[in-house]
């Protein structure tokens, strides 16, 4: 599998990652996006049609790079895993240029005033068709199946390429970092259930929106589930010592954390606390959290 090379990163180039898949890296590197958002063009390069997954930011050079990767093929679908603004804003201008429908996740716009460690939501996203879990888009020699994976966002979808056993995982499972879960839309219980759903599948490789291809997906997902359970156990132990506000968990759970990331860590802890409360393992009294 093709690897993300050292800087300079290959923005604007069509990088073949498997016979039916090309990857185009957007020029939007950031602490949220790693080297940038990876758009995937799915279909035989010599065939008549293709699909575009996660068209990325609305930046003219990136849209032109996608069109160059498409070549003479007809774009039959522009597919979005979710509506963070590093994923879906290019859908509308790309649809205007190609005539392709926008399909995939449901629209979602949520204003969050607290600290984030991901991108804000795209207010321009208007799909022509929302895919339900198990629905498919087909072209010449390719079939993409929607796999509902709420958690990172409530509208998150992955897309399975049936012909190769690959899964396009968006931000649910990434090749460079764990996914963030930020309430109120992000839900830790849903995220864990979605991880377990992926673990039960037999996908051979994951192509995420950020980072290198994941060639041992089951091993990675198992580790991610274990990491989240470890965090959960830490929270239960600390609550057992005394009632705490969410911020009080951070010094014990995140040793040496960059001060700029404290707010985001607090939101992650809050996601765990809300999930524990739903399961009857924690209770909240005003701003204080304790074991139920």
TrEMBL record:
InterPro entries: LACTB2_WH, Metallo-B-lactamas, RibonucZ/Hydroxyglut_hydro, Sec-metab_biosynth-thioest, WH-like_DNA-bd_sf. Gene3D superfamilies: Ribonuclease Z/Hydroxyacylglutathione hydrolase-like, Winged helix-like DNA-binding domain superfamily/Winged helix DNA-binding domain. Residues 36-210 form the Metallo-beta-lactamase domain. Pfam families: Lactamase_B, WHD_BLACT. PANTHER family: ENDORIBONUCLEASE LACTB2 (PTHR23131). This is Beta-lactamase.
């Amino acid at each position: 599998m093709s690897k993300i090379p050292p800087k300079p990163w290959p923005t604007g180039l069509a990088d073949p990652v498997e016979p039916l898949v090309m990857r185009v890296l957007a020029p939007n590197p950031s602490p949220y996006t790693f080297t940038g958002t990876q758009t995937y063009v799915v279909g035989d390069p010599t065939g008549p049609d293709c699909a575009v997954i996660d068209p990325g930011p609305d930046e003219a050079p990136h849209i032109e790079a996608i069109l160059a990767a498409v070549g003479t093929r007809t774009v039959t679908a522009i597919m979005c895993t979710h509506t963070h603004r590093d994923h879906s804003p290019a859908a509308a201008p790309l649809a205007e240029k190609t005539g392709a429908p926008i399909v995939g996740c449901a629209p979602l716009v949520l204003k969050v005033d607290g600290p984030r460690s991901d991108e804000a939501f795209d207010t321009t996203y208007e799909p022509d068709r929302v895919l339900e879990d198990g629905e498919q888009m087909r072209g010449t020699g390719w079939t993409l199946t929607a796999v509902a994976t709420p958690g990172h966002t409530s509208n998150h979808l992955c897309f399975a390429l049936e012909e190769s056993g690959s899964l396009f995982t968006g931000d649910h499972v990434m090749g460079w970092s764990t996914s963030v879960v930020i309430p109120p839309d992000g839900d830790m219980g849903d995220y864990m259930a979605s991880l377990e759903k992926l673990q039960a599948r037999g996908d051979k490789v994951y192509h995420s929106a950020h980072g290198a291809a994941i060639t041992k997906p089951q091993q990675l997902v198992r580790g991610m589930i274990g990491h989240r359970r470890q965090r959960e156990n830490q929270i239960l132990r600390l609550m057992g010592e005394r009632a705490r506000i969410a911020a009080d968990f951070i010094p014990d759970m995140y040793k040496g954390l960059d001060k700029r990331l404290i707010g985001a860590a607090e939101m992650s802890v809050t996601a765990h606390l809300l999930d524990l409360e739903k399961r009857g393992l924690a209770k909240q009294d005003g701003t204080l959290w304790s074991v139920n």
